């Protein structure tokens, strides 16, 4: 039996971004003992990188805003594939989650009359993003951490121990979920990044909040943690993924110099007045308003410019179409020869706002371009192009509780699927983390409360970790060392394998796809899977990034296959999935999601390092009648089949 450090909790939260912290706070406030595990430093998650803001229909800047308008915008952005129940809960609860943050000490930017300021973003009818300059995620994480410290201080006052009910295990990577004999989740296996020592957590409820998958792609705004761990852990534990074909390419990443390619340029630049131009100086987005949005966007530059000051009497600029539309438009401009010297287009804020105003509203962007590209954005245009940014697909969860199909396993945040359909609106992630992080915390707490014998520690009702699973997880974790030192120069290098995977995903499963490319991608992923068996790392388990990457590659390969196989199956174009060979929306696909699961019986051990996945279509539940009635039937007719529309009040006659 493997000797390991062991810890026992009621709820184990894997991930310390916005979703994980919000879930942990909720479970702790319900009296449970909670562990938070994160593979990066505490406070360093993607949430901290969020720039533009957090979408919530508070109506502070535009009083006509409401949860119904936010719900409609979210469904339109996702091209009506979203889990409508998640979109409903999100739109209704987001304002309370933002106000709650304020009561916990968050300091948002203010309107002239002292309310939380809200800015414009793509796809949102009204200015809706609560923000702190262009550093909103930093304030969100700081506030949640402060709340956690406050809870720890309360525990200290009561028990003399700061960590009596809430403990953070930072720089600790989970590599496997553990289940009991009945298939219920029982805990997780991981290693300390610094020492390489193993650690086992026992818990009857586990919340996955591990974020996205961007590091499988070559050009991405994401940082090193985004290797699809939560999605792969869930699959291997028996849960399903949905919508994995929908990967968001943010239209504006940096394109130059090469060392910073992909780093995000916030949509807040366009929200605050910045416009896109091609090499001819043309504001090309006016040519790219798709039929489904016709009539909702300005048709002339004059109207678009007036909209920034008078939103009731003018239509919004097409620079602020949903991200999928803008990314495809930029792609076309570059392909047709109207791109910038480094393969992007121009984003111009310099000619539209005073230099000091740019520095005040967009301080991070000013510094980012100054430091990384030697460009002064108060005087020159930025060069920008699409970058892999976010995954709409993820772990299939119950909308109300975050529960997966595996008893005791919950998920929230970017690693969960459904909420955003085929395309996420900017700002809707930060609010998603807060709304569904809280709900997953409640779901996990109620699950634990429902188990018999909770107060008896490891008593009846609590699932038990099996020693053989711990042994298997440990054996798999050390496998990359197996060939080290025996035959110098032989074996696969994890960095080479990673680069090949990223190139495959970028070139074949990127922004525009075809059947031939998907098939080629699946072939190459099969080859990479075979090569992973031969990955060899040298050195010791003490801080060894090559070893860490070798373990992350398992997850990236599983998730890469899920994306490519789902993209092959969906023979239409919708949101973040564009098929050159099936360029139109197809109403027969609107009500169907693609579910990815592990192929049963895939062998374990070294040969089964990366279990195979399979994809099948499933029907989405029809939208509730009162929600359907929030849309005009003419609009729904662009997405729905005539048979589905009979449920609409105007459709029955
Ligand atoms: P994260 O915040 O990424 O947290 C994931 C956590 O999981 C980390 O703590 C990580 O260490 C941990 N983890 C991962 N794998 C493991 C493992 N195996 N073991 C242990 N721990 C693990 N959204 C908006 O709504 N508005 C914005 O303005 C905005 N701007 C953005 C700007 C940038 C540059 C980026 C990259 C994203 C932006 N987004 C924005 C998207 C948003 O920030 C993310 O979708 C969101 O923060 C994800 O939060 P999360 O809690 O799901 O995951």
TrEMBL record:
Domain Fumarate reductase/succinate dehydrogenase flavoprotein-like C-terminal: 498-595
Keywords: Flavoprotein, Oxidoreductase
Source domain of life: Bacteria
Listed InterPro entries: FAD-dep_OxRdtase_2_FAD-bd, FAD/NAD-bd_sf, Fum_R/Succ_DH_flav-like_C_sf, Fum_Rdtase/Succ_DH_flav-like_C, SdhA/FrdA/AprA, Succ_DH/fumarate_Rdtase_cat_sf
Location of the FAD-dependent oxidoreductase 2 FAD-binding domain: 10-430
Pfam family, one: FAD_binding_2
Protein name (Swiss-Prot/TrEMBL): Succinate dehydrogenase flavoprotein subunit
Annotated organism of origin: Isoptericola cucumis
Gene: sdhA
